[in-house]
Structures are given as C-alpha cells and as structure tokens.
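Table S4 entry, CTRB2 protein.
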Amino acid sequence: MKVSWALAALLTVASGCGVPTYPARTTGMTRVVGGEDAAPHSWPWQASLQTSDNAHYCGGVLIHDDWVLTAGHCLRSDFETHKVVLGEHDRNGESESIQELQIEYAFRHEAFDFQTIQNDIMLLKLRTSAALGDAVNAVCLPDQGDVHTGACWITGWGLNGTNAGDRLAGVLQQAELSLISDDDCSSRWGAVFNPSCMICAGAVDKGGCMHGDSGGPLVCENSAGGYDVIGLVSFGERLCDPFYPTGFVRVAAFRDWIDQIMALN
C-alpha cells in the first residue's frame, strides 16, 4: 500500500510539473558565469543547498513537494543541520517569501565514485513538504529514451567571473546551452566522460562554467510545452577553458533508481 500511495503522489505532482507561472527572460547568453539575470521565479524548481548560517554551496532541483534532486558530491557529513531553500531569486534580498526546509534523509547513489564522478546523483527527502505555487513548483522528470531538441537552460548562483576571489551572484543566473554529442564530449574529456550516465552541454566555442552550481539543473523544453530536468551539474573545467563543455549527470539514466527511492521512502 505504501508503494502504491507513493506512486500515485508522484503522478499527481507530475501532472502540473515543469510549467512556470512567470515566463523566462531569454536573450541567448551561453554561460552562467557571464550569463544573465533570470526573471524572478521563472525557474520555480531551482533549489539552493545552504548551511545553517545561510551559505549557499550547491544547487538542486525540486522534483516533488517532498524531494529535491542534486549531485552526489554535494553530500556533507552534517547535512542534517543544513537546509534546502526554495523560491529564492535574490540572495541579498529581504522581501522574498522563501521556504527554508530541513533535510530528513539524503540518499546518495550507492555506486557513487568520488574519484571518477560516476553515478554523481543524490535525492534529498524534505522533513516537511514544500508549498507549491507561483514561486515554487516541481520540474518534470524525463523518461529513459526521451529525446530533447528544444532549448536547454542552466540556472544557478554561479560566480560572476572566473577569478578565485569572485563572489557568487546575488541574483539567480541563467544561460542557454546546446547539447553536445557524446562523441564530441568524449574527444574533449577523454576517460572522464561516460556516456551511459553523463551528458555534456555548452557552446562548443565558449565552453561552460559551473562554479557554485554543482547539483544545479539543466532543463530542456519537452513536447508538452514544459521543462524536463535532463542534467545535474557534475563537473567542469575550473577556469572555464572554452575547450571543455560542462559535464552533467544524465538524469534519464537514473529514472528507475529515482522512482524506486521515492516510492519506498
């Protein structure tokens, strides 16, 4: 009965997923570092993982009112004292009605490898459910085998420059990226890239940057007019070398794992 109820709940959320109330402001910038300010709450599934003293350290994405998806390497030993922040646009603003939710459980993929960055995915079970609305909503999950040919976007509070002393952006940043073929990505990243569980995106002549955005979402338009989260920021070239596109967890490859964890917990 528990499994049946959980799956029914997932279907309920999925029926209204991936469609923001406020449309994105799109001008075609191609990197979060050097990207552009997002329109307020135009990416309502964006999550910020923060310490108890409000320090942002990873991104994430809301996929259900009880669950956030992020990168496996974002797990910290004291995660019980950390929080997931939803509905945030300006990290320096004081008038936003954000939701600060504690983490009940962290489920990192059992085959995660910190050295090779394989299986770099984690589910966070929230202690209390997120209140869904205009500023906070779940994104859709892709099915295995889905093909996305529409526009794709990365979002996060990435550094607004490439120097070590640069700060995280105050306002949520967005950048439009192109999906890069597995062959092209392999030619650039070599053995680091595993096409069975990773994808690459960026402008081939401009690369991609990920500082401050580990675990953040790469979303693409789907056939229903909404957005699927097809990737989670996993790895990249630290100094934003144009030769190297950003590497993402291939979310569809883990769909069975995601469904199983959510159904049983």
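Residues 1-13 have pLDDT under 50 and may be disordered.
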